Predict the structure.
Amino acid sequence: MFNSNPFAELSAFIPPAFMPTFVVVMIVLVVAGTLFDIVHKGSAKYFFANWRKSQGKGAKTVDGGELVSIAIQTGVVDVLTSGEFCNARRRVAHLLTMYGFLTYVVTTAILVFGYPTPATPAPAILPMLWWIGGLMVCIGGYWFWFFIRADVAAEGNSPLRVMHADLFILSLLASVTLGLIWAFLQTRGAPGANVFFGLYIIATTVLFGSVPWSKFSHMFFKPAAAFEKRVSNANGTRSNLPAPADKPEGFGSARTQPRHY
């Protein structure tokens, strides 16, 4: 099961060009949705306006070498290791979901475009990475959904409570979960595999087609915001905020540690 390319088996009942076309359409939806989100919310305009404002009011000038150093720190700490999360459980869940999603998406693209039919068998490592990536998304995503969300962990709300902000994580989990179920049933030749494939296509379309209304585009905005924050700290503006305290107080109680940040 873990060595079989599930997308190659689709050529037995749908045209081989279907999945490559579908992937291209999903990419177009992400690009178009992100651009729409930027224009609609004015994110880029706000970012550059805030950047110019902080550069003009900074107590010191940040030179090119320091900017490169800050960019590297941002990439390593804020992007690659999600250093903005103080809570270790939330950080691990986020990293599992993030790296699982990247592995899952990249291997999906390689399997779909490079090995579309059984006539061109994929190296065993690729389907295995596809499964590993999908399982990482499920572990990190369901862990976050049932045990880490702020309104569930701290406020005692039901884990089944759904809000608009949950669109991204729910559509992501639905897409990956249905994809894994479909692949499992297909490798077993079990009935119902085609039904789960159709549900997988619908959930994936919702995931990538809902970019303007979900948190999907945050993965593109957050690195820029983290970089701007580090530059503001370096030049002394800090967006008009006081210097960060070494030992912040006021979160949780003396006996109970906060669980949601």
In short: The mean pLDDT is 81. The chain has one domain: 8-48+57-238. Residues 88-114 form the longest helix (27 residues). The domain at 8-48+57-238 is CATH 1.20.950 (Fumarate Reductase Cytochrome B subunit).
